[in-house]
Design goal:
It is found in: Cell membrane. The protein is of the alpha+beta class and 299 residues long. It has 8 helices and 11 strands. Helix 1 runs antiparallel to helix 8.
Length: 299
């Protein structure tokens, strides 16, 4: 066999081994980039969960301050009503003073002395299932006055060493939707907050269409037993996604960050293809060089 043929075959075998090595390297880059992307998204879900808890805890702190006002401590409800109206601040927010059995005494959406809504049974049951002195965050419910989806934060009012009342801050679910939208995630991503039942409280897009709907059975099953993780499925609007969920420890609500599968894999795929392309160019150059050397030997 001519020397140039042997040399060419040797280079060809070397190139084939190089291609195999390049494929392994590309897969390594793809896998590593995928893991890095998923870790970053999981951290984003955790950060938003903390943001939601901070927002809700801020409402609770406002109520704690309000619970200690002199007018409420001396049971001057007419004066306290004015303070509560001021604390409600936003027109779509409400402050409610309740007796321990859940009966409303003051509701800032109603004039003082006017008939008030009946007991919120779900909120009362949540209170009964919690410590009497605990701060609680409700699940999503429909307001009896506005007939819109809302949630509430509730704190105890302690007077002379005992719980005399509870104070609620009721807010529209849409207010939390605005908070999620402000995070500036890409338009194709879906950021949502669900309550303990897995019902959508807020969403970064399509708030009015999806509030109150349940997350998928598979995702709710995971969230019941795990505080964080991922789940492959489809969003409520039918897009195949990988969902990164994280339970907010203070409120026990869960944040779900859903990223389209195609978009999730794109950065890793692009990095792997770039590496594979560079290696292919190098191997192609080596093959051309081998042919050139073989021709010179033959000459």
């Amino acid at each position: 066999m001519p020397v140039q043929s042997r040399l060419f075959r040797l280079v060809l075998v070397t190139c084939l081994l190089g291609v195999a090595a390049a494929a392994l390297a590309a897969w390594f880059v793809y896998d590593r980039q995928s893991r890095a992307t998923e870790q970053s998204l999981a951290q984003s879900a955790q950060a938003v969960a903390q943001l939601v808890d901070n927002e809700l805890a801020g409402y609770a702190e406002t109520l704690r301050v309000l619970s200690g006002t002199a007018s409420l401590q001396r049971n001057d409800l007419a004066t306290f009503y004015v303070s509560a109206r001021n604390a409600a601040a936003a027109p779509d927010s409400t402050v409610v003073l309740l007796r321990p059995d859940g009966e409303q005494v003051i509701n800032t959406r109603r004039p003082l002395g006017a008939p008030l809504p009946s007991v919120n049974v779900a909120l009362r049951d949540l209170r009964l299932a919690s410590r009497a002195d605990a701060v609680i965050v409700s699940n999503l419910f429909t307001s009896q006055l506005t007939h819109k989806p809302e949630f509430a934060v509730q704190v105890p009012v302690v007077r002379e060493g005992r719980i005399a009342y509870y104070l609620n801050r009721g807010l529209p679910a849409a207010s939390l939707g605005r908070l999620l939208k402000a995070q500036g995630f890409p338009a194709a991503w879906r950021l949502a907050v669900v309550d303990r039942d897995g019902r959508v409280v807020a969403r970064s897009s399509g708030q009015e269409s999806y509030v109150g709907k349940l997350a998928s059975d598979a995702l709710r099953s995971r969230m019941r037993t795990e505080t964080f993780g991922t789940n492959d499925g489809t969003t409520l609007d039918g897009i195949p996604v990988r969902a990164f969920f994280r339970r907010a420890p203070w409120s026990n609500w869960t944040v779900i960050l859903s990223v389209p599968v195609a978009e999730l894999r794109a950065p890793a795929r692009e990095a792997a293809l770039l590496l594979a392309g560079l290696i292919a160019l190098l191997l192609g150059g080596a093959l051309l060089a081998a042919r050139h050397v073989a021709r010179q030997i033959a000459a």
